[in-house]
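Sample log: AI-2E family transporter.
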Amino acid sequence: MTHETSRRWQMFAIAAAIAYVFWLLAPVLMPFACAAMLAYLGDPLADRLQRLGMGRTLAVSIVFIVFLLLAVGALLLLIPLISRQVDNLVQNLPRYVDWARNTVLPWLQAKLHLDPRAFDTDRMMAQIKDHLGSIGDAASTVLGQLSRSSIGVVMWLTNLVLIPVVTFYLLRDWDRLVAWIDGIVPRSIEPTLAHLAREADAVLGAFVRGQLLVMLALGAFYGAALTILGLSVGPLIGMVAGLLSFVPYLGFIVGFGSALIASLVQYGDWNHVLIVVGIFTAGQLLEGYVLVPRLVGGKIGLHPVAVIFAVLAGGYLFGFLGVLLALPAASVILVVLRYLAERYRQSGLYMEQGRGDPLLAEAGVVDATGGAAADTIVSDAGRKEEVPAP
């Protein structure tokens, strides 16, 4: 084994060990991952304040206070709004059930020519109520155990307190942490990793900062438009549609379907349905032609199928932490794959010219350099036939 091969295996083993440790510690990494994301968002602001002449600690303190005030203000604004919307949804739930029973199911029976016994609404509603009751009992049991479990409460409060504390220290020492990581990287691969880090920083900056603004803008647009339309659950639908917009078309599908059903139940006419269609069409145009080009740009380049796969794979492997970090991780992986593809195109494996198909060359159709020959071909029956040269 050569020295170069041995070194590569050593680096592969180190990377695999680090990945395995992260996988083992995934259940306790949630506050640290959230804190790292907040520190990454706040570092450019702190650097800008430093360039104005402030010390690092003062600049970080100002950014931290701004983040804290924004978080507290958002909680004070959103919690009462969400509470009212959920109460409103629960109060209107019987109307949705009656609409499904008296409008949707008879229409399906008439159009699909199905056996009416297949749509025994009383039996279906009884089963739904039984399942809802069992879910409620299970939720009550889980919450009761959690409330009685001092360890669970302590862990939840610890995570809640750790996020701002870790965010402050990471933000204060961000530049030193980056320099330390750069200092321990093997010198042979440091230029390559530095190049990939710059590319990944550009991609992550475009995604984390830009996509967050897109989500907020779409949520505000949908919520305001549906509220002006008069839908009682309009703000809740708008917030959900904006929150899910980081997965391509998922926010649109969920929001549009929910708003469509809400408008049919609340108004029962086609005018409001057409207005809902216009609102979500305008939202898609706003997202595709204004928000994403200006706030996110074309640096990420993730295909919608890749986005959906990344979210599902992250959730399966690491739970909610995986869902939270799926798209940033996929963006970084995309940078690495682009680099590897470029290295592959410059390698001898890709650049070396082929010698043609040996079977056809043996038959005299293709010569050793891949060119055409004016000899013979072998027919299906196994006999040789003369063919003209092209």
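Observation: The chain is about 80% helix and 0% strand.
Observation: The longest strand covers residues 376-378.
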